[in-house]
Amino acid sequence: MEKVLILDFGSQYTQLIARRIREQQVYSEILPCTTPLQVVRQHAPKAIILSGGPASVYAPRAPLVDSTLFTLGIPVLGICYGMQLMAHLMGGKVARAARREYGQAELEVTGSGPLLSVGSRRFTAWMSHGDRIDSLPPGFAAIGRTENSPIAAMEEPKKRLYALQFHPEVAHTPLGTQILTNFVKKIAGCRGDWTMASFHKEAVDAIRNQVGEGKAICALSGGVDSSVAATLVHEAIGDRLTCFFVDNGLLRANERKRVEEFFSKHMKFHVRSINATNGFLKALKGVVDPEEKRRRIGRLFIRTFEQAAAKLAAPRGRKPSASAARFLVQGTLYPDVIESVSFKGPSATIKTHHNVGGLPSRMRFSLIEPLRELFKDEVRQLGLELGLPKELLWRHPFPGPGLAIRVLGAVTLRRLALVRAADAIIDEEVRAAGRYYELWQLFAVLLPIRTVGVMGDERTYEHVIAIRGVTSQDGMTADWAPLPPELLGRMANRIINEVKGINRVVYDVTSKPPGTIEWE
Q1: Is 384 helix (H, G, I), strand (E, B) or coil?
Q2: Which of 1, 116, 148, 497 is the most buried (most CB within 10 A)?
Q3: Gap between the Cα atoms of 245 and 442, Å rounded
Q4: In angstroms, rounded to a whole number, what is the distance separating the alpha carbons of residues 370 and 450?
Q5: What pLDDT score does 356 carry?
């Protein structure tokens, strides 16, 4: 399989580089910049991309790479910090720019090579740097410039080395995707034959090799990720997969009925439902810190599954055996991992993700994470390949900790009921308006405050619901959704009139970044 390696130096855009490469049907993988050269060689990449990063190459502890990387004959593209690093290690001069360059700039193409062959000699590029290349390394030629950066792009085609000061991976560089396509296909010679059909086959084979004759269990929530993961594993090992639906009291309205009907009756999966509401509410009693909520839910999640798995092989009247199922299927996605831990790059932890950081360090199960390297839209395409319906695959993402992190503050039955009822109304109204599939997510959040209101002739002092709606391609960045005022008005009116205990509704107009999509 053709592969493009991306060495991550801590850029917030690294995952976007990977996504743009995959859009060309070329598999890309992110590795930390500290990956030994020997390991890089073992991957046998068709091309290597050096990401941006917050450091300066001349700083005492700046992240570097072995300069031998540039002598392997493998095409290398440096982006932002990656360009400066290439220049620094190859004998050029990098210095602090007299004027920092952030935002859009007009770039003039000064070379004639394939990298910047985009049908225009001038185009808009997104800059984000405080350093610049003052002098080129020997053998390199400048192929692009801006008003503030005389060397905004460079190349050494004999050594197959290329570099850009700007970010081609972001939407703010409109021709950036074409530039990355030029590098991957025209320069590196990738065919572009990585598809969900090929991934499907490889994933099934990998699951069979991992599980052997063993058994697996899966946390089937009914969301996109767990549904696709379960379907993929079921294809690989059949009835040796048992799915457990845990009704933890933190789910959306009518979730248990919907999951049981589709997966048990239609898909013919072995699905066992577990009513664990009391246990989860007891574990969350008095907890207000969102990270602690996630940790407690993660620990209880695993204990619940260990007990359920043990019962699979427990003869009647005997003590349950823990030998029945050794594998736990999880719908972990690439963004889950990126946001949770320093995985494949020195990225800062934003929050413990529901599929990753909340799990105990000591766990009896071996994880099966067949979607771990996929973005959400790729998972949906895989779901179509597996024959799952659009209504399920394009359902809005739902967090693993459920409504516990949409109830800000203490989690109680009463507060869960409020946010669940409001969320159901929001879902009904956006579907009725024909806007559901335009959005990445739309949901209710119960705020930890009360406000004064007037209903009829009486004063009220009740709870507040925030409506959060965003558009996004992969969940890594998101824009707040400008929903029509009349639609928001219908939602607010119904919530206040139908959900006793709510007297105010507000709408969140924060994008990601600076905010995250979920409030906790």
Answers
A1: helix
A2: 116
A3: 24
A4: 44
A5: 45
Count CB atoms within 10 A of the CB of residue 279.
Answer: 16
CA distance 296 to 401: 9
Give dist(CA 102, CA 132) in Å, integer. 12
Q: Do 86 and 76 contact (CB within 8 A), yes or no?
A: yes
- What is the phi/psi pair of residue 359, to 5°? -80, 145
Nearest to 232 by CA among 377, 385, 444: 385
Supply 415's token pair: 């507060």
Coil, helix or strand at residue 161: strand
Tokens of 88: 């620094």
How far, in Å, CA of 380 to CA of 224, rounded?
Answer: 7
Tokens of 456: 């009829």
* CA proximity to 12, closest of 476, 364, 511: 476
| Partners of residue 98 on adjacent β-strands | none
Write down the pTM of the prediction: 0.74
**Rounded to an integer, what distance in angstroms lies between the CA atom of residue 160 and that of residue 77?**
9
Question: Which residue spans within 41-80 are E strands per DSSP?
Answer: 47-50, 76-79
Residue 350, pLDDT score: 46
- Interior/surface letters 86-104, b for 16+ CB within 10 angstroms, e for the rest: bbbbbebebeeeeeebeee
As a whole number of angstroms, the distance between CA 141 and CA 10 comes to 27
Q: Is 37:66 a contact under the CB 8 Å cutoff?
A: yes
Answer for the pair 475, 379: CB distance below 8 angstroms, yes or no. no
Residue pair 56/33 in contact (Cβ under 8 Å)? The answer is: no
CB 123 within 8 A of CB 175: yes
Q: Which of helix, strand or coil describes residue 429?
A: helix
Q: What is the mean pLDDT of each successive set of 10 residues along the chain, which is 520 residues long?
A: 93 89 93 93 97 90 94 97 96 84 90 95 90 93 93 96 95 94 97 92 95 90 91 95 92 92 89 93 96 93 80 57 74 70 42 49 78 90 95 90 96 97 98 97 97 89 97 85 98 97 97 92
386-389 long-range Cβ contacts below 8 angstroms, 24+ apart: 386/200, 386/228, 386/231, 386/232, 386/235, 388/227, 388/228, 388/231
Q: Which pair of tokens denotes residue 79?
A: 């982006």
Query: CB-based contacts of 187: which residues, under 8 Å, 6+ apart?
Result: 47, 75, 114, 115, 160, 162
Is 222:400 a contact under the CB 8 Å cutoff? no
Q: What does each C-alpha distance from 307 to 239, 296, 361, 426 come to in angstroms?
A: 20, 17, 18, 36
Q: Can you tell me whether residue 33 is helix, strand or coil?
A: coil
- Short-list 170, 114, 172, 178, CA closest to 143: 114
| Residue that is written with structure tokens 């490889």 in the block | 202
> Among all residues, which ones are annotated catalytic?
80, 167, 169
Q: To 10 degrees, the CA torsion angle through 369, 373, 374, 376?
A: 70
Strand runs (DSSP E) across 195-332, as ranges? Answer: 216-219, 241-247, 270-275, 327-329
Closest CA to 28 of 232, 233, 334: 334
